[in-house]
Amino acid sequence: MSLTKATFATRRAFGERVLERGADDADFVLFESDLGKSSLSNMFGDAYPARYFNMGIAELNTMAAAAGMAAGGRTVFVAGYSVFMTMRALEAVRSFICYPKLNVKLYASHGGLTAAIDGVTHQGSEDIAFMTTLPNMKVLVPADSVSARAACDLALATPGPIFVRLMRDPLYECYEAGETFEIGGSKIVRAGRDITIASYGDIVFQALQAADTLAAKGIEAEVLDLYSVKPVDAAGVLQSVRRTGSLLVAENHQKRNGLGYDLAALLLKEQPVPFDHLGLDDRFAESGNYLAMIDKYGFSAAKIVSAAEQLVMKAWHRC
Amino acid sequence: MASRTTELDLIAQAVRFHIIDMVHEAQSGHVSPGLGAADIVTALYFETMRIDPNDPDMADRDRFVLSKGHSCPVLYAALALRGYFPVEELKTLRRLGSRLQGHPVKGTVPGIEATSGSLGMGACQAVGMALEGRMLGKDYDVWALLGDGELDEGVIWETSASAAKYKLGNLVFIVDRNGLQTDGPCESVMPMEPIDKKFEAFNWKVMKMDGHDMLDILTTLQAARDYRSGPVCVIAKTIKGKGVHFMENTTEWHAKAPNDEQYARAVAELRAGRT
Predict the structure, then answer these.
(1) Dihedral of the alpha carbons of A272, A273, A277, A282, in degrees to the nearest 10
(2) Residues A93 and A63: beta-carbon distance below 8 Å
């Protein structure tokens, strides 16, 4: 576990891996909707023009045409902004990709508030809710470039639809090269005994920073990276909270129907413990600086620290 | 040719009989959209398309996508009569546990190439299939049957642009131009004429045919297949509910099941060979 500087946007790491895999796997193709320069899928188009289809600014058609291509058994990546892929093209994803379990891999850039500066129309702040609701859909959210590259490999190796949520902005590296990941897995990126902080994507780094601050205050937080948002590692979460006694979920997404809602339901059924949840609280965000934004809306490292302190107090009082 | 068209006309009548029969049995489903498309679907499955019911997944088979998925009784009937699955199974339409879902689902019975039923989406999938054929250098054709009301969907025009961009000479849209949609005449619900000029403006080759004249259907579909420079849109003039006079040219029978008396009348009419 090393925290080095912010280097790679996960969209870039994923896009580069797609490009690399394209060299040795001539069997998959890529569809996109005139956002190749943003999703960085244009690198694939430049290298493999015969396997690259730019369908223009027409996300629903792009998704349904990808389904038609995948119906022949081919693996198809569809690249785009998370917000458009998950809403404008939602019906094609649901009825024509998830229902027939086609090998379509959604390469979704600009997830959560990382499209912060562009404003609400470009922010994928409900994408996890839409995608986790769909039967047969799996959801991966890499936290750094190492896990983003692994997500591409997992997407190619796993039959059926997968949604990979990627971030626009460079993220800090959480993993060393060679770290392995699996569908339904999770990682304890920092061990601790006093509270479990679960997150995914860009907020994993915020949780790690928060854990440093908490440690200085005598609270040892365990930080879980739930990169496999669906299926989620329920056993791993339960094991951790049975040790720590409380769970704080922080996510760059609406709280409603986000990962926190899934885990709250899990705890209520299996292991009721003090619980709190940070995310967009039933509101839209705005245009602005990404880091300032996640702080304003309540899921930055600083906000995780104060929520964790209160939750630990609550857990101790309960004992 | 004359005897072959007579033969195909008879098969189309059998398809119509099964449409009435299965929707009556289920007491649910769409009757008149299938009756109107029966001649075209029969021509495709019994003459035009390169298919093999004994090898339904044959790599170079032609693909058919019923984009107007609600008219699936016509597809189920044609597939069963062509030998893809037992004809007796038609009576399970829309029943719990049946392979014959209310709208076509790929992977249920053999021969269904695409899940469809949400209008517009079948056409887009057909474009994806044609792109794959083009990419792999295969010479199969992709045929998609669209409703004329379906043209209201904006995604039809998105996908028409993409088919033209890739000059998909292996793709044919057949527009079932019966002039009626659920709420009434197409031209009052949402005027779309001139349909031919719209497709032409998207750089498609447009052809027209009488969707109930078997010879015209066979000739036009062959011409559509032979045209390789880009996608073809065949506008087929049809009569919704064709073959059962009280169901013809009315929206009433779009999504209604016949009761026993209506069923008997419809069957008698089809047996009498009225076309």
Answers:
(1) 40
(2) yes
Helix (H, G, I), strand (E, B) or coil at B49: coil
Contacts of A89 in chain B (CB under 8 A): none
**DSSP string of A67-98, one letter each residue:** HHHHTTT-EEEEEEEHHIIIIITHHIIIIIII
Per-residue confidence (pLDDT) for residue A1, from 0 to 100: 42
- Examine the pLDDT at B168 and tell me if it is beyond 80: yes
Axis crossing angle, helix B2-26 with helix B260-271, rounded to the nearest 10: 170
Query: How many alpha carbons lie under 13 Å from residue A265 in its C-beta half-sphere?
Result: 7
- Residues 6+ positions from B51 with CB-CB distance below 8 Å: B45, B58, B61, B62, B82, B111
Q: At what angle do helices B32-43 and B72-82 cross, to 10 degrees?
A: 40
pLDDT in tens, A133-186: 999 999 999 999 999 999 999 999 999 999 999 998 888 899 999 999 999 999
Per the document, the length of chain B is: 275
Pairing of strands A187-190, A221-225: antiparallel
Per the CB < 8 A criterion, the answer to whether B70 and B15 are in contact is no
| Contact check, Cβ <8 Å, B128/A92 | no
pLDDT in tens, A237-290: 999 999 999 999 999 999 999 999 999 999 999 999 999 999 999 999 999 898
Beta-strand pair A170-171/A162-165: unpaired
Show the 3-state SS of B208-269: EEECCCHHHHHHHHHHHHHCCCCCEEEEEECCCCCCCHHHCCCCCCCCCCCCHHHHHHHHHH
The model carries a pTM of 0.92
Token readout for B89 is 């199974």
Across the interface, do A68 and B126 touch by the CB < 8 Å criterion? yes
Mutation for B interface: A52, A95, A96, most B CBs within 10 A: A96
On the 0-12 / 13-18 / 19+ scale of CB atoms within 10 A, A108 is: buried
Tokens at A179, concatenated: 């770290």
Choose the mutation target among B70, B105, B121 for the interface with A, i.e. most A CBs under 10 Å. Answer: B121
Distances (CA, A) of A10 to A13, A42, A151: 5, 15, 10
Which ipTM did the prediction report? 0.89
